[in-house]
Amino acid sequence: MKNKILYLVFTFVTGFYFSQQNAVEINGWTNVNTFKCVNNAFRNSTSIYSFMGNELPNVVLKVDDFDCRNRMMTSDFRKTLNSDKYPNLTIKFLNFSKGNGNRFNAVVEVKMMNVVKKYNIEFSQYKNSLVGIKRLKFSDFNIVPPKKMGGMVYVKDELDLTFSLGIKD
Fold first, then answer.
1. Which tens digit of pLDDT belongs to each residue from 50-75?
2. How many whole angstroms separate alpha carbon 169 and alpha carbon 62?
C-alpha cells in the first residue's frame, strides 16, 4: 500500500513537472549526494509523438546535450557514457498498449554505448504528455560507475530514467 501511495505522489509531481513538454532526465546517487542530468535540447524541442498504429516513437538523444548543472559532473557524465565514441542514447518504443485509467504499458528499447536493453515501462497520461520512469543500472550497459578521490566518492549503480513525451490530444 505504501508503494502505491508513493507511486501516485511521484506520478502527480512528475506529471505536473513534465506537463505538456518533452523531457528526459537521468537521476542518480553518489555516496554523498544526488545528481540530475537533463537533456536540454530535447526539453526545448516542440516534437509531438503519436502512439497510434505501427509508427511508435524512436527518440535519439545526443549525450553531449545532457547538462548536470555542474561543469565537472557534466564532464564526468559524458566521459562515463563515452560520448566521443557513442554520441547518442536511443529510446525506441517497440510496443504500446492502454492499461487501466490514464495508464499505458510499453516495451521500450534503450540503447546506450551500443548495448541494447528492453524494459517494460508504465506510463501515465498527464495533460498532453505521457510520463514514465524506469530504474536502470550502469551495469546493465556494461558501464562501471565512476569513482573520485581514490574511491572515497563513488556513483551508485542505479539510475532513474524519467521522461515525458508530448502527445496529440
1. 887 778 899 999 999 999 998 988 99
2. 28
Whole-prediction pTM: 0.80
| pLDDT at residue 126 tops 90 | no
SS3 76: helix
Contact (Cβ atoms closer than 8 angstroms) between residue 15 and residue 128? no
The domains of the chain are located at 2-166
- The residues, any chain, with a CB within 8 Å of residue 47's CB and separated by 6 or more, are 22, 166
**Strand blocks (E) in the chain:** 23-30, 34-39, 58-62, 66-67, 88-98, 103-112, 115-126, 129-137, 147-148, 153-166
Q: Rounded to the nearest 5°, which phi and psi values hold at 72?
A: -65, -45
Euclidean distance between CA atoms 125 and 101, whole angstroms: 9
Angle at 44 between CA 41 and CA 47, to 5 degrees: 100
pLDDT of residue 9: 44
Question: What CATH architecture is 2-166?
Answer: Beta Barrel (2.40)
Helical ranges in 34-142 per DSSP H: 40-43, 71-80
CA dist., res. 32 & res. 44, Å (int): 31
pLDDT for 132-154, tens place per residue?
999 999 999 999 888 887 778 88
